[in-house]
Amino acid sequence: MLVFILSIQAKAQYANTHYIAPSPWQYFNRYNELVITTLSTTAVPVTISSSDGTVYSNSLTTVAGTPLRYRFTATDAASNPIATVLNGQGLTVSGTSAISVQVRNIASDNYTSGGSGPGDISSCIQKGNSAFTSLGDQGLGTSFRIGYYANVSGSVCFSGETGATVYSVLAMSNSTSVSVNGILLTTLNAGQSYMFQATLGSLVTANNNIVVNAGMRCDNSSGCGDGVESQVMPISYLGTTYVVVRSNGSTGYERSTIVATQAATTVSVLVPSTGVTTNYTLTNAGDYATINNGDGATAYTTSYITTSKAVAVFTGSADGCEIDMIVQPPLSSCAGSYDVQTNQFLNNANGSNAVFPYFGYIILQSSSAIVYINGTNVESLTSARTQIGATGYYFIKFTNSQLSNPANLRFTSTARMNIAFIESGAGYSMSSYISSTTSTMPPPSFTSSCNPSTFTAQSGFSSYQWYNNGTAISGAISQTYAASSNGNYTVTGTAASCGTTPQSSTITINAKPNAGIDQTICAGNSATLTGSPTSGTTWTSYSLNPSGATLGNTTNGVATASFATSASGTYNFVFSAGCTDTMSVFVNALPTVAAIIGTTLTFVSGTTTLSDATSGGVWSSSNTTVATVNTSGIVTGVAPGTATITYTVTNANSCSNSVTTTITINPKPNG
Fold first, then answer.
1. pLDDT at residue 1 in the model
2. Model pTM score
């Protein structure tokens, strides 16, 4: 039974493909690493690529219990600018089976740039000291409330920037329009990304699935400075119950901001160690309240947050003035994992790959289920769990020294665990949740993004419900659904162990584009390709077309295909608008015409006879005031000068081809 539960309910952050938006610093150097885990007991091949498809490694594997640590190899660090469409600055990590991906920046103040030696310090290039876990399928969405642990400022690095939070979006589909508070920000193609600054609590929306990150180049709002980065959760996966834990940081950093996703949201914050409850009312969607973590002074004290409507919670977690941020997962009976894996924190190569100290905590709803670390009861190594007030949630804290500093860590239990893993000390702070955030339904697979399309939901649920534009579709309760109308489709799944999942992220189905009717033309001519809709579309030439066609750019759904006189055969052109339709242009060959023969010189009133071996043609003169030609090819001089004589042959397909010769007319001789 446990294996069954694991297979369908504990994989919210396990997915075959992870899309990771850029950070202010570029990922592709040895100061950034990935920790990749799997629940599979057989080795899973892993491919690591930039978002434009550049492969960094496709020869690595990971297996349950032995996480893969991958560190990029480039020596020099670089930064990403805001307000610019970025190509290939996001990450794509995929496995042949489901994997989880943790991203760590380990730069600190010890990296190189521009070929210089170790120890360059420029927060605008890469301050680092940050970690987060990819949300997998649960990170994909079309609507996000963005935020930060508090409304603070950091270093100002580049023209046009303030010290405010830097957000980034990564597109998985072409023609993805991204808006902030209803105003178009940018339009991206698959693999492209964009970084921007916006007011805390802003609404980010897109017409296709995107992933979103939030962070700062260098947060120096409380003492020293540090890089911060975390992935933002889509609104559809947020909840109403959260637990925040205070770590070892300065008071200015140890804060959390609660962002409303709907108007008239009430918030209640209980600090169990003091017994004090504070209430807030967030009047509008996007309004926020900032609170101290725990009691505001004592490490590992907690705040228990309950709200009337779904909210996003962004938490600062620090060691002294070294800061990182956790985007809190909502808690529920279906939140967390039964099997959580990671490995120890290491310094970068310039720091001799030294082992870093860490602490972590486990939140669960069971008072008795044993939590094992590498097969040992964790409470035999640490202190016993404590209840968080009277909430029904329990708390277990651990440190690397208590666990004897294992290289790999694997937590298992028969109860769901929510686990945060925080590097703390040695001048660093990296923090992230490494457990699954909540029970979820991944996006369904689909045969086409245009009608008709058939959806298939993840297997393993006892029943399903499909939705179009948020409304349940009557009778659509099977694992598959054949869509016959346009709209935004989602699905939920129900399992006896955990109830009904939230709706999956949205798949948008559009009307199939229309490339227009097929055409027939003659070689040497052009064809106008006109498709609908007119915006966000492209025409492309089929790769196996015969030679001889040149395709122009697409403007408002229209492109021109020009054909050489040597072109012949069927040419296919693909019209794309999310999905595709094809127009065929059949090009008839021109007739072959022999060269004109005969004398090309005569005089006024004189004649010369031209002929052509190809029969059935028509003779013509370019200048009948100089020379005329009759149907038999007899040229008569009219006035001194030159004229072009053309012989044109038209075949059965109404395609014409011509040959020419120049005739010279001299004055009439005397005598």
1. 28
2. 0.70
